[in-house]
């Protein structure tokens, strides 16, 4: 499926990692949060903890799981392999490019089509089953969301631990709204 079911959800990127700070592609390495990344997640609990989430879906990767545990210590977390970051193969641990070659398949890496398919399959499963879930994952997952809702994966990088409300289009405008979520 190449579309996202028209149901609202909130997306949260994990806290800062060393790779984020150094502007390097992390991709599939299971890297930890920096102390600042842990602090970001703790600080987010004040806002995220006020919401009674229908479901908290989290990537299997350590940086996303740690962020979710720190931001929502009282919530039950549900881990999904389909929310993992893209495997960038030979490009991992190299500087982030501008623009990123999203649609190219890096040597030894995951194709954009395969990555987008697994992310959308997982998101659509969640949106079928839960009303406005929280999704804790990675910037690449957000790029997939942007690609299917905005028509391209490019644009400013999503901030670490900056929740985004993904609101389906109203019938008259047919455009998804991706806006900061305030709680």
TrEMBL record:
GO terms for biological process: negative regulation of glycolytic process; regulation of pentose-phosphate shunt. GO terms for molecular function: fructose-2,6-bisphosphate 2-phosphatase activity. Signal peptide: none annotated. Keywords: Hydrolase. GO terms for cellular component: cytosol. The keyword Hydrolase applies. InterPro entries: His_Pase_superF_clade-1, His_PPase_superfam, Phosphoglycerate_Mutase. Pfam families: His_Phos_1. This is Putative phosphoglycerate mutase. It comes from Kushneria indalinina DSM 14324.
